[in-house]
Amino acid sequence: YVLVLNPTRRPLTTWTTTPGDPGSKVILTSPHDGHIKLDQVPDRYKKKKKKKGCYNRTDNTCDWRHDCEGERVYRKCRPITGADMNSSMFALKIRQTIGRELGVMPHLIVSRLHRSKLD
To answer: Taking 50 as the threshold, does the pLDDT of residue 113 lie above it?
Structure first.
């Protein structure tokens, strides 16, 4: 996810990548450890509004689109917005272990966007 705030400036990167070995077919991701909160990206949840997804009773799933249709059920479709602490460090250690044990270093993508903005 790259957001261009001003076309004349460099884009703000909300993720970091660590390339692995060229022959690696493994890509590790860490999507929930970021701290960047961009105003241009809508919040998934605001405590005052108790934002929630639309609950589908047929297949027991939640639709998280901002314009979803259907019943919004807070106890069934309450979003998790807190960061998974140290998940990026955990992903890095897994990457290093796979590289050491298998001899092929995986690629790594780490989101820096706060979980209140992305899941």
So the answer is: yes
Q: What is the sign, positive or negative, of the torsion defined by CA atoms of 59, 62, 64, 67?
A: positive
- pLDDT value at position 92? 93
> How far is it, in rounded angstroms, from Cα 59 to Cα 37?
32
Q: What residue spans of 3-114 are helical by DSSP H?
A: 87-102
**Number of helices followed by number of strands (H, E) in the chain:** 1, 7
DSSP tag of 105? P
Structure tokens at 30: 């860490």
**Encoding tokens for residue 82?**
């807190």
CA 55 to chain centre: 21
Taking the C-alpha atoms of residue 64 and residue 2, their distance in angstroms, rounded to an integer, is 21
- Side chain identity at residue 72, one-letter code: R
- Predicted structure pTM score: 0.65
